[in-house]
Write a structure and sequence with these properties.
Oligomer: single chain
Helix content: 40-55%
Number of strands: 12
Mean pLDDT: 93
Shape: elongated
Structural class: mainly alpha
Distance between the termini: 65 Å
Low-confidence stretches: none
Radius of gyration: 29 Å
Length: 523
């Protein structure tokens, strides 16, 4: 373990320290990380976030301790289907199977042996596409194979203890019927939410009555003939697998508390847990799949590289963040800055790019030109093809091409798409005020003369940025930020933009001067 690792303050290492403490207390020499997945729907951006964040903590744990670990992606596919999803074919067929475990329902897509198998396959393809290292686990396999049998019998022995934990959280009606054990109907295959009238610990069975007919049944809790209510199921899984770490969203805080109490009643300590904040839309409302006010993985990856999504997920997981299209450029430029800083960082473990790339920055990672800069260039020249942008890029970086700058090449394609769908439709120029008109005239004349000295080591972009600052300071802008607001709103038709000196260097002094003159002539 390096000195930099020991001194790291990044949140994955703080989590890793908590896990190391748990293992030391338990006398374990390996760690099990878990992420849970409900396969009634397709993987989404929250799935990515949870697995990515858990993977970063796992990598930090490895560097901190040198101990082996596993990441288990667990699918709760024994759950009964509660409603027919909107985004699947053969809805009428699925409606006939409501209440049955997802792995015992035909695949509406006709590709796999069950609906659960289809969605499990989608999950694994999704995680593999992002290069996550994980082991897949199916609740149906674990229940039916007998792998959970000992833990289920242990739950049966503590049936009354679990009920005492859960009952105070329920309303009067549900309290009268609650049991942590859900028998599966031997004829219909439906997961039954019925009162358990008797528990036979010796034989490992429960007794219940079919509501419609009054027929009494005795059902084994082992072998997949029954499953657990999900809070008890979560606790049973922690107990059976000895899970050391699992994170979950803020909406599950109460569930984590109850499952933790249950696993303690079973005789073990709950795993180290991290509660992450939920995402908000552009109006500050909680994102909901039913409302459709979120942002999908495919949408994000249309407009920015996957590294930018990782950057967004990495930053402050316990702080609520807005997740909508406007955050994409900032997240992309934040990643570019992190990748550029990593090779010379005194504490690399505090750099998001270290975690995003598993400690090894790939060759050609990052970009010499920021995404915001490319967006503004694409907006000004109305770029609809990569070659339009590459013409300017080659003037700025002689000899640049997609082969030598592969990440920049990806950014070019994303910038064209983002400009087409978001920047261009919202572009609105405003006329300059009298103060702004004087400053813009001054800037144009200063660019034409370009007489300011360039200091040793100073780039052209830095020289031009200093020139822009100097012009702003010569005019009554208070605060100086309003001068840059003028540049973006009057010249570019946007509310914000990149460092303007860098934009001038990329766009060229001559074209920027012409842009100013066009804005001054605009009615």
């Amino acid at each position: 373990m390096s000195e930099n690792t020991q001194a790291s303050l990044s949140w994955p290492f703080r989590e890793a320290e908590r896990i190391a403490g748990r293992l030391k207390q338990k006398g374990k020499d390996h760690a099990l990380f878990e992420t849970g997945y409900g396969p009634s729907g397709l993987p989404h951006i929250g799935t990515f976030g949870e697995v990515a964040r858990t993977s970063w903590v796992r990598k930090a744990f490895t560097d901190l301790t040198g101990l082996p670990s596993r990441l288990l992606a667990f699918s709760d596919d024994m759950d009964g289907l509660r409603k027919v999803p909107d985004n699947v074919p053969n809805k009428a067929m699925l409606k006939e199977f409501l209440g049955r475990p997802l792995t015992r329902i035909p695949d509406p897509f006709g590709k796999f042996e069950s609906f659960g198998a289809h969605n499990n396959n989608m999950l694994q393809e999704f995680l593999n596409a992002f290069g996550f290292e994980f082991e897949f686990a199916s609740a149906s396999d674990y229940y039916t194979s007998g792998r959970f049998d000992d833990a289920l019998l242990h739950v049966l022995r503590h049936h009354d203890d679990i009920i005492r934990i859960i009952l105070p959280t329920l309303g009067p009606e549900r309290r009268a019927t609650y049991s942590p054990i859900l028998p599966i109907h031997p004829r219909t295959g439906i997961v039954m939410q019925v009162p358990i009238t008797q528990v036979d610990v010796e034989h490992g069975t429960v007794f219940w009555t079919e509501p419609e007919t009054g027929i009494k049944f005795e059902t084994s809790v082992t072998g997949g003939a029954a499953k657990l209510q999900w809070k008890a199921d979560w606790a049973m899984r922690w107990y059976a697998l000895d899970v050391d770490y699992e994170m979950s969203g803020k909406d599950l805080i109460d569930s984590v508390k109850l499952s933790s109490a249950i696993v303690r009643a079973l005789g073990k300590e709950p795993p180290v847990a991290l509660t992450y904040e939920l995402f908000l839309d552009d109006k500050g409302q909680k994102i909901s799949k039913s409302k459709g006010n979120g942002l999908s993985i495919d949408e994000w990856l249309t407009y920015a590289p996957k590294e930018s999504l990782s950057q967004f997920m990495y930053h402050a997981p316990q702080r609520a963040k807005k997740l909508f299209f406007d955050v994409i450029p900032r997240a992309t430029d934040d990643y570019i800055a992190a990748a550029a800083a990593l090779p010379t960082a005194e504490k690399p473990h505090d750099n998001p790019a270290w975690h995003i790339h598993g400690g090894v920055l790939p060759e050609h990672a990052g970009s010499p030109i920021g995404f915001g800069m490319l967006l503004n260039l694409a907006s000004v020249i109305n770029a609809d093809s990569p070659e339009m942008l590459w013409g300017f890029i080659r003037a700025y970086i002689p000899g640049a091409d997609a082969e030598s700058y592969p990440f920049l090449a990806r950014l070019v394609h994303h910038a064209i798409a983002y400009n087409r769908d978001f920047v261009a439709p919202a572009k609105t120029y405003r006329p300059p005020t009298e103060v702004e008109r004087g400053a813009l005239t001054d800037l144009a004349e200063s660019l034409k003369s370009n007489e300011q000295a360039q200091y040793p080591g100073e780039t052209a972009a830095e020289k031009l940025q200093n020139l822009v600052y100097a012009v702003g300071k010569r005019h009554p802008f208070a605060p100086l930020k309003s001068w840059f607001d003028c540049l973006y709103q009057v010249l570019l038709g946007t509310m914000e933009g990149p460092r303007f000196g860098g934009f001038i260097a990329l766009y060229s002094v001559e074209r920027t001067t012409a842009l100013i003159e066009t804005a001054l002539a605009r009615d």
